Amino acid sequence: MLEFLVHLSWPHFPPDIHIATLKIPDDLLPERLSANQLLKNWRRHPSSDKLANLGVDWARSTRNLLLRVSSAVVDQIENFLLIVRVQDW
Questions:
Q1: 33 vs 6, which has greater pLDDT?
Q2: Does the pTM exceed 0.85?
Q3: Domain residues of the chain, as ranges?
């Protein structure tokens, strides 16, 4: 959420954003995409299409339900991307 909201100004804040909490089973290990696997300037805003395509390619592969990625905003934080359309999970 922070990765999205940090680039918005208050008048442009979407009114329909919701927050949900999910319990992920301990045996469901996320795939990890570390900062050194990303493009050299991956924290730059706006990001490049190549960077976006890494996530799109991962989502299309459906090889894992979760992807763990470094935060572009805060070094010590990681984000988890969730595919909600994977039928095998």
A1: 33
A2: no
A3: 2-82
